Amino acid sequence: MAEAGAAVTLRRDGELLLASIAHPPVNALSHAVRAGLMAALDAARADPAIRALILSGAGKNFSAGADVREFGQPFKAPELGEVVERTEAFGKPVIAALHGNALGGGLELALACHFRIALAGTRLALPEVRLGIIPGAGGTQRLPRLIGAAAALGVIAEARELSAAEALKLGLVDECVPDDLEGAAMRFARRLFAEGRPIRRTGQISPGPVDEALFAEAQRGVSRRQRGFKAPPEAIRAVRLAHELPLKEGLARELEICMALLNGEQSRAQRHAFAAEREIARIPGLPPDTQLRPLARAAVIGCGVMGRGIAMALAGAGIAVSLTGRSLAAAREVHAAIGKSYESAVTRGALTAAQGAERLGLIVAAEEDRAAGDADLVIEAISEDPEAKQALFARLGARCRPGAILASNTSFLDLRALAAASGRPADVAGLHFFNPAHLMRLVEVVRTTDTAPEVVASLLGLARRMGKIPVLVGAKEGFVANRMLARRSREALFLIEEGALPEEVDRALVNFGFPIGPFAVQDLGGLDVVLATRRARFGTLTERERQADLLEQLVAAGRLGQKSAAGWYRYDAERRAQPDPEVAALIARHAARRGIVRRAITESEITERCLYAMINEGARLLEEGIVPRAQEIDVIWLHGFGFPAYRGGPMFHADLTGLRQVLDGLTKYRGSVGDEYFSPAPLIERLAQAGHGFYGP
Questions:
Q1: Of 67, 571, 645, 660, which has the most beta carbons under 10 Å away?
Q2: What residues are labeled active site?
Q3: Which structural domains are found in the chain, ordered by start?
Q4: What digits encode the pLDDT tens for the residues 642-687?
Q5: What are phi and psi of 98, to 5 degrees?
């Protein structure tokens, strides 16, 4: 007895039958696996000498859940729900031996088993809401019966992950073992026989009555934390059904909800976002076996907000960091501030005391010469002054050892000029972090035509080591993120010149799904900082953009944003924003001086102009080869600027909208705003005429 289908192997040990899911890389529950599991149940039933069935996973996981490649296609029998229900109804004990990941459908299968043993370190979760759906094979009905509604709501509606130890405490698993999982499962089975313990079917456990206050609070929580997403409130509704309906009816309603969500646009968009992250890891033209450069020691030149965050991100990955500033004293001051940040993280429970001490110990304040000379990687994070950056790269090129990587955190300056200044352009690349650098997951890895492939591969690997999502882009002003952001910012500024107010622009984009509007973002970061960036780019601006000098006027009036309690908004002692009549008056005076007759502007125009300007620029980035695929653009906006995941990213959203409609909008605004701002990208024109989108027909 060796196989129950190609993806499930069988082995007998006396009165026990061991079935192992063998479907790498993550043991997804594909049709072959589901058929194999049914065959394993058949084999255990057919042999009277078999007294129990143990289900496990080969490789690194029990099962990471459904095979997402089957989504959107007709499901083949047996469906997962059939496998799960037959497992729970089976007449002999079924024991799940869990390790690695037991996620989604993998955990639903385990819930249907009669007993569960977990290896320490196992991750258990029902993350379906991240794909815009809810569990569809009994997760919302069985988990509350095992661990109670309060804990189940966190796992299901908010995709909270449980450790094996937490699962044991909650009653989700029966034993947690440090090693020898298979041996522990077999010993557990034989104890069942010796003790005569009956089969325990999860679906037969009473979930208890509905706790109205608990469910009301859960709804308020997802409305606040997951605004705009359809799946989380539906997950709460499904969990409630476990307390209101018999199991069979609850399972039927759960599946109805799941399928309705699966066929909706939000799930399509969220599944696209999930797939896009994996697609961008496959780099065209960069072999996976490209040799990596050693990156044990790093230097960060510049200890402002970004430099500090970058140093913390590196230390979090176990890399020794030398941090430099304008002076050694300044670097030491920042080092002390980093220590306070780690103390705060320990107080919040985000780090253990040992972790905080270890990370702080990896960061040292140093002088530039010594730091650069010892480093495998130098990251420049000084102010966006092209002359200062070029002078720094000239020094680094001379001082750094051969093979050291020289990286810039510049957000929009010409990386090619910095590479040329270094005298060693093959060693130079961009590492554009997002603020705060130690918390934000996105990193743009920027290469020039001269950047060595091993430098690219090494920086991509480093970003992943730091827990980041790296996106490889080409070296041109603004790269991807800030080049597209500049177009949105331009339209936001033009819109308030023409008649909108800052709060109206922000409200429109928040209603679309962004967590915060563009003017509130500027106030948060500091209008003086935004103005410094504008001044550095002033030579590239059009005449109308230069004349739209509202930022200059606000900063001249001492309105720097939240830090001065006044910017585009005014702020109270708790930093709560309120629209400011003074800003409205300033805008009105500005428009009058410029001869602009202000008008009422609809929310739809605000949203369209901001989004279509971004999408149009994204199309130009694709045409120029700055990125090879639309996926890179979507991932950057999803993780860098909070583009709503349930819309899939700007390029996917354009496809859902229809490129013909986008083209019509660009043409309309081309006539009203100006040809230089809304001239449609040729790629959009070609795709729209062919009836295609960025992702195909």
A1: 645
A2: 108, 128
A3: 8-133+146-151+160-206 (3.90.226.10), 297-478 (3.40.50.720), 500-593 (1.10.1040.10)
A4: 999 999 999 999 999 999 999 999 999 999 999 999 999 999 999 9
A5: -105, 140
